[in-house]
């Protein structure tokens, strides 16, 4: 790999040719604030918060989309850069509801984080603000465009991760907004409620309805687990508060799926706390289901299957397994059917 | 009236623009013929040597721009920017209306230089009659075979000012929202449909047939040495003659207004002149002896831009005019990048407040700081140039702002 030599904040660094300034800086332990850059989404260069000073360039280029070149001399925290970032943050705050106290994103909000980092308490540019109706049309996602900073992450996630392309932009300038086709609510659009848009949103514009009001971001205990819904094996974090699961959040460091989840994995967990949920095996006795131990239940199954096999022969038995099971479980199912039950009557719901 | 020097307008009103035969009789397509007898490298070197610089506003050396197209590119495109949306500018329309074949010839010369077989003309949506004329001219050129294997198609814009920015223009041709892309990569490397693309302005292309035919040295000797040739200017505002003219680039603003434009209307005194369109800086009377070439204009904090010359007499209210300009930019910002979307909006709010007599001194200071940051951080030229009228008027006409502030 060809390495390029350059200087960042007075330090001689090397980075692979083709890197962006932002990547080169991160490689050498220098972090640069950003709102629209995500390594797993296509670059946009539109939030402009990651601008840096490059000697010889009168502009302040966005480091997330500017490639490095040999001998570049870069300053990531020069007075001009800090002034520009403060102005950009002031502009964003001028058009942002100041309801952080009750915002569910508090503690996990990148806008708030950078405002804190750069000491931007309030804005000198306060004037008209957006007054969009909040979209609460569906059970999963609350969409408050008043908090949208137009980083475009949701648009890209919908197109590039989910492949739905359900979001784009309407109008121009100050009125530009992220919308569904024809600006209908999520529930009336082609949205599949995978929630990838929520997973990437840096502010409180898109939040999980289920978690609203349940716990602050820093109170959530995150438990990494594997989704039980299908055999893909997606990982996610169960958000636990006071012993109760209150939500699911995906994480870019999940090996199998990254941030991607489907509607079931992200939002279909509420059965966990359901009072009617089965917690032990049930055996029907005298027409009623009666709680039983696993040992009792498994013994009963073994007994009855042996009876059927002995009485009617192996081919009276067939097994149909499910795509919700893992490969290993499906393997065991067919192994059991062939080796124990002695038949090749094996089928799977995903076969047809 | 002083004499013009016409290169791109040499056939204006001399030939029938709707007849290819007229253009051929006036020497048309000889430039292309000569270009096709040259190697690609020689042609680019010749154009580079002529020092023809882009007439759309950024003034980049035309031949140098072409040289960025990789020589091994299998597919490349030539795109003509006819999205003339700059208020007060109509020079591209005139150039095309008076002599459409010259534009086609210029594009075909470029096509030969960068090995492109396909050209697009992106025409402003408000010029449907120009599209008709261009399509007629393309049909005639195709039937006669003068363009050879170079094909040209006209695409229409839909009224967005930002689509005059080359990458937004490319997005629009591709069928997307007209929003600029980040650069690099520049269109010369990755442009239309990701292929190497040369985007030049109408006036740039229109100069090429004569440059190739007469040679680079001929062109380089005309006008200012660093920005040679002529420039088509459109005179608007408080000037006696609201005309279009083509003059060598070493002519001064004073000569343009007083010799070619007949002076300020009704014998009034001049307060300011804005050159280059809405985003141009305001130039006070004492700087009128500056030549109009790109570099001289830059040296006084102004721009040549598209060549619109907007004259304001002593009775004009600068703050009111700049407020209208600020309104234009907040309407025309595409909204993609934060500093332009929010910045143009806040600039307008502050300008409007000052214009209504409700502004304060801190308002001015905040706007200056905001404007200076926007010039350096906005994604494209629209946002970067939009504070210029505010900042230059605050530099030269600050008293006009101060007298409107809350006392």
TrEMBL record, chain A:
| The protein's Enzyme Commission number | 1.17.1.9
Q: Where is the 4Fe-4S His(Cys)3-ligated-type domain?
A: 80-119
The prosthetic group or cofactor this protein requires is: [4Fe-4S] cluster; [2Fe-2S] cluster
GO biological process, alphabetically ordered: ATP synthesis coupled electron transport
Which residue intervals define the domain 4Fe-4S Mo/W bis-MGD-type in the entry? 220-276
Would I find NAD among this entry's keywords? yes
Q: Which domain of life is it from?
A: Bacteria
Limits of the 4Fe-4S ferredoxin-type domain: 139-158, 183-211
Q: Which molecular-function annotations from GO does this UniProt entry contain?
A: 2 iron, 2 sulfur cluster binding; 4 iron, 4 sulfur cluster binding; formate dehydrogenase (NAD+) activity; metal ion binding; NADH dehydrogenase (ubiquinone) activity; NADH dehydrogenase activity
Subcellular location per UniProt equals: Membrane
Q: What class of enzyme is it?
A: oxidoreductase
Tell me where it mainly resides. Answer: membrane
Record's Gene Ontology CC terms?
membrane
Q: Which InterPro entries match?
A: 2Fe-2S_ferredoxin-like_sf, 2Fe-2S_ferredoxin-type, 4Fe4S_Fe-S-bd, 4Fe4S_Fe_S_CS, Mopterin_OxRdtase, Mopterin_OxRdtase_4Fe-4S_dom, MopterinOxRdtase_cofactor_BS, NADH_UbQ_OxRdtase_75kDa_su_CS
Alphabetical keyword list: 2Fe-2S, 4Fe-4S, Iron, Iron-sulfur, Membrane, Metal-binding, NAD, Oxidoreductase, Repeat, Translocase
A Pfam family that this protein carries is NADH-G_4Fe-4S_3
PANTHER family, per this entry?
A: FORMATE DEHYDROGENASE H, RESPIRATORY NITRATE REDUCTASE
Q: Which family does it belong to?
A: Belongs to the complex I 75 kDa subunit family.
Q: What's the protein called, per UniProt?
A: Formate dehydrogenase
| Originating organism | Sporotomaculum syntrophicum
UniProtKB/TrEMBL annotation, chain B:
User: Is the keyword Amino-acid biosynthesis assigned to this protein?
Assistant: no
* A Pfam cross-reference name: Complex1_51K
Q: Supply the source organism for this entry.
A: Sporotomaculum syntrophicum
Superkingdom of source? Bacteria
- Name by which UniProt lists this protein: NADP-reducing hydrogenase subunit HndC
Going by the record, the broad EC class of this enzyme is oxidoreductase
Q: Per its UniProt record, what InterPro entries does this chain match?
A: NADH-UbQ_OxRdtase_51kDa_CS, Nuo51_FMN-bd, Nuo51_FMN-bd_sf, Nuop51_4Fe4S-bd, Nuop51_4Fe4S-bd_sf
Any one GO molecular function term: hydrogen dehydrogenase (NADP+) activity
The family annotation for this protein states:
Belongs to the complex I 51 kDa subunit family.
Where the record annotates domain NADH-ubiquinone oxidoreductase 51kDa subunit iron-sulphur binding, the positions are: 319-364
Which gene name does the record give?
hndC_7
Documented EC number(s): 1.12.1.3
* The keyword NAD is annotated on this UniProt entry: no
